[in-house]
Amino acid sequence: MIWQVDLLLLVALLASAVLAVKIRDLVATVAMLAVFSLFAALLFAGMGAVDVAFVETVLGSAFVGVVLLAAVTVTGRAGEGMSRRAAWVAFPLVGAFVLLMLFASSDLPDRGDPDAPAHQHVAPYYLERSLADTETPNVVTAVLADYRSLDTLGETLVVVTAALAVVVVLARRRPES
Fold this sequence. Notes:
The chain is mostly helical. It has one domain (3-114, 151-170). It contains eight helices and no strands. It has helices at residues 3-22, 26-46, 50-75, 84-105, 117-120, 122-134, 139-147, 149-170.
């Protein structure tokens, strides 16, 4: 990627992070955190970690944004408490999401299944070539720190972004009355 575009995305990323912390309205804060996540995804895509960019887009901006908006809906913009109407909206949405995740996970191969696609194609290559390619005797370290280092960096940033979102929402001060 062109370094000027990288720099522009980095500045936008930092600006959205600062705005997310400074904005007083919780809904606007959630929107800024979603924008932050999208800029992070664009940076990941520029580094060639397209799968991490996709995960950051789906989880960081879409899913976390929806969950935070549901939390704001339940607690209110200023944290004054949950209304019955909000609870009737939020609880079915959370239940629907849990059912969706259970349904989606039902199609995954069993844990440790030797016939799973990852065990047929990728794993044998890593096991056979990791020492020669990376000069690292531990295969797990070779995969995480060498073959997929940008992915590991991206996943770490996803976790840090989620932690930042939790801190921003929970540490929000109430306006002086």
